[in-house]
TMM54 protein (Tichodroma muraria), 185 residues
Amino acid sequence: LVSAHLDPGSRRKVLMKTGLILLIVGHLSFITGALVHGTVLRFVVTARDATSLHYGVANSASVIAALLTISCGVSALLLSRYLGPAALKRALLALSACSSLCCLCCLLGLLVAIGLTLGNQGRVLLAPCSIANIALAPVSRECPFDPTRVYSSTLSLWAISLLLEAMEIFFGIRCLLLTLELLRL
């Protein structure tokens, strides 16, 4: 992931690129989580249903992990500009470790959410709709959202979130290793 003997100029470039990637991936992850919440989960999540509650917790954790990743990216960019301050190095070390661990937890939570959704064939996602025929749902006022594609859309967005979480983990660990090298640990 990181070569052991980089000169300061190379370290700056690698840190800057890693920080930019973390910023971009973090923002994309945040947007994906917001889309899932705004289009489906705000109607579905209830405290009485463990599966829908898991959906809400996993999605909220994904958004929080995205914010941590964005913070890690900003810190990496700052450190690439100013390699001297030890406090900034320690802050990036803590942020990259927390971001990577949080993203790993979110990845596992999203995998469980996908498994639950596939297992119950989307019934929990369609629970707010009190209609007998899903094909008539777009013309019905008994459903707070258009349920015709909610199952496939949610699974697609969660698949994108999984990919983004994996990227956040990879580049978070890369940032962690770069910081460890800069701190000479």
Observations:
- The chain has a mean pLDDT of 84.
- Residues 8-44 form the longest helix (37 residues).
